[in-house]
Specification:
15 strands; 41% helix; five-stranded mixed beta sheet; 14 helices; alpha/beta; 381 residues; binds zinc ion
């Protein structure tokens, strides 16, 4: 019933009985306990058909708050959201992930406390904390698993550290899954099959299948960057393999090729500026990278049949040339049935996708039927 109410539409008890097919007494008891928990609130009266007008109820997104933290290689954004995933306030700071878990997570805890204080919410109002990390994470335990750019983090108990400082359940996942959740929740909530591709220093994908994030057996699903690219022959990847997509189509890979061709460009940001400034070599390389990504994505389309492919990450600031290359190959290689309705679009949530996604991960957990059941049982006892 709560899942139904989360669309925000006010409904009367009679409407809920009709919609759920549950008995009058069951709906009555449920509404009462959800009201007591603060998850529903009275929302005015419905028009009367004679007699006392029936009261309407609506989901109350301000019943609790959530902290979402999006940690990158050099920056962190920590935000406070309500139970709809709407950002109330946020803070972006420079934070070097390589300085290790203790100073980084202490800072996240401090920022979280500041945001709670500013919003005049207490730790008791906090439903949970969601964290996105720039490396592989075993989602079930919240521990990073041999993350390449995060020395000292391997196997670290991130949830224990953060819940000691802030409380609440603490859920952790990699940044690409978090961005996929954020983009799905805010821009494509009615799309059940979506693939989010991040193209930046690395390349990765977050897969939404049947409306749920698909993490795979060990949380390693969506590792697109280390699939073999069609023109990857002989190019060494930082993973130790040869010919990976990341080694030919990531920001640093494109920058390297341009530098060898004599173009003055040192990093991915400078590359973005060159493409936006109309540099023909940079545009051509960006489009070629798009085609490599498209070739790997064409297999993904054949396997998963998504409705939408969302492309995000730093390089999407050159959306036109990158998307042109991706579309060229995906539409050319995949079967018409799979591409008939397929949209390939740029991410729209921008800088907030990580925070919203991290919060969404927590909200989906705390508002799941089992969790709500448990909270109501605790409240009743
Ligand atoms: Zn690789």
């Amino acid at each position: 019933m709560l899942q139904l109410m989360r669309d925000g539409r006010p409904r009367t008890r009679a409407e809920l009985i009709q919609l759920t097919g549950l008995a009058r007494s069951t709906v009555g008891a449920r509404v009462d306990s959800l009201l007591a928990a603060g998850l529903l609130k009275p929302a005015g009266e419905s028009r009367s058909t004679g007699g006392r007008p029936p009261v309407r109820f609506a989901f109350n997104p301000t019943a609790a708050v959530v902290i979402g933290a999006d940690l990158g290689a050099t920056h962190a954004t920590v935000g406070l959201t309500d139970l709809d995933g709407t950002v109330i306030s946020d803070r972006t700071v420079e934070l070097d992930i390589a300085s290790g878990p203790v100073p980084v997570l202490d800072r996240v805890v401090d920022l979280g406390r500041e945001l709670l204080k500013e919003a005049k919410r207490s730790r008791a109002d906090l439903a949970g904390v969601g964290i996105g990390l720039p490396g592989p994470v075993e989602h079930s335990t919240g521990r990073p698993a041999s993350p390449p750019i995060m020395p000292g983090w391997d196997g670290y108990d991130v949830p224990a550290h953060v819940s000691a400082g802030l409380g609440g359940p603490v859920l952790v996942d990699n940044d690409v899954n978090i961005m996929a959740l954020g983009e799905h929740a805010t821009v494509h909530p009615h799309v059940d099959h979506l693939v989010f591709v991040k193209v930046a220093t690395g390349i990765g994908a977050g897969i939404i299948s049947g409306g749920q994030l698909h993490r795979g057996a060990q949380g390693a699903a969506g590792d697109l960057g280390h699939v073999a690219a069609p023109h990857g022959d002989g190019v060494l990847c930082r993973c130790g393999n040869v010919g990976c997509l990341e080694a030919v189509a990531s920001g640093p890979a494109i920058v390297g090729r341009l530098e060898r061709a004599g173009v003055d460009v040192h990093d991915t940001r400078a590359l973005v500026d060159l493409v936006r400034g109309g540099n023909p070599e940079a545009i051509a390389e960006m489009r070629a990278a798009g085609r490599e990504i498209g070739a790997v994505l064409a297999s993904t389309v054949s396997l998963l049949n998504p409705q939408v492919i969302v492309v995000g990450g730093l390089l999407i600031q050159c959306a036109e040339s990158l998307l042109a290359g991706i579309r060229e190959v995906v539409y050319g290689r995949s079967l018409p049935l799979a591409t008939e309705q397929l949209q390939i679009v740029a991410a729209r949530t921008g800088g907030h996708a990580g925070v919203i996604g991290a919060a969404t991960m927590v909200i989906q957990h705390v508002l799941s039927a089992e969790e709500v059941e448990r909270q109501l049982a605790n409240l009743a006892s």
